[in-house]
Amino acid sequence: MTKISLNYGEYYHIYNRGNNKEALFKEDRNYLYFVDLYSKYVYPIADLYAYCLLPTHFHFLLRIKDLEDIEGSYQTEGHIWRQVRTFLGTYSKAINKAYHRSGHLFEGRYSRKIVQQDDYFFQLIIYIHQNPQKHGIVSDFRIWPFSSYQVYKRKDTRSIITKEVFSDYCLYNTIMDTHTKYVSLENNIDYG
Q1: What is the C-alpha to C-alpha distance for residues 149 and 50, in angstroms, rounded to an integer?
Q2: CATH classification for the domain delimited by 11-185, as one of 3.30.70.1290, 3.40.50.920, 3.40.228.10, 3.30.930.10
Q3: Residues 71, 73, 77, 82, CA torsion sign
Q4: Residue 55 CB partners (closer than 8 Å, separation 6+)
Q5: Is 156 strand, coil or helix?
Q6: Cα angle at 148 between 10 and 41, to 5 degrees?
Q7: In this structure, is the dihedral angle defined by the CA atoms of residues 123, 142, 37 and 87, taken in order, positive or negative?
Q8: For 26-69, how does the pLDDT look when each residue is reduced to its tens digit (9 = 90+)?
Q9: In the chain, what's the furthest Cα-to-Cα distance?
Q10: Looking at the predicted structure, is the pLDDT value of residue 191 above 80?
Q11: Are 131 and 188 in contact (CB under 8 A)?
């Protein structure tokens, strides 16, 4: 299978899980550290629309910024994939050190799918947010604290979610309406 490259201006579903289905996040502080590292390494090059961090895996829906919207050293060729690799590698090293473990934390390189259609974009946000419920971690995805659903619900403009979501009234309302329709239908279709 050919790997999809990360290109400027494109939307992607990026995900991975722990090696041998091992936990990536053992404590609440691990989730928070992961988000901090995302802010440091990926936020400068990508707009984030949805995320969900689960004990054994994670999902991101993001858009790599256009070249002209990326500042400074981040503009160099090939820097996009290096930023994501550094983000995940830094997290792996920290977890290995903190929990006296060695070896790969993640199951191979991160996976990615390109997102090119609007309806798939909105379905993917629902899929990402409902993951904790789908995997039986919580009975209702809306209560999972390590998901961007909480950010949407609070309209938290200080989060790592792109500010465009909150400034674009139509986009925000479409996302929230899609959630409402999903909940009312109690539908667990796998769009992944």
Answers
A1: 8
A2: 3.30.70.1290
A3: negative
A4: 23, 24, 25, 26, 137
A5: coil
A6: 55
A7: negative
A8: 999 999 999 999 999 999 999 999 999 999 999 999 999 998 88
A9: 48
A10: no
A11: no
Task: Note the pLDDT tens digit of each residue in 66-96.
Answer: 988 887 666 665 678 888 899 999 999 999 9
Q: What is the DSSP letter of 145?
A: S
Q: Are 104 and 93 in contact (CB under 8 A)?
A: no
| Per-residue pLDDT tens over the stretch 130-146 | 999 999 999 999 999 99
On whether the CB atoms of residues 49 and 165 are closer than 8 A, the answer is yes
CA distance 166 to 168: 6
Indicate the residue type of 113.
K
In this structure, what token pair is assigned to residue 188?
A: 């667990």
Helix (H) or strand (E) holding 149: helix 148-154
Instruction: Kindly report, residue by residue over 98-128, the tens digit of the pLDDT.
Output: 999 999 999 988 889 999 999 999 999 999 9
What pTM was estimated for this model as a whole?
0.89
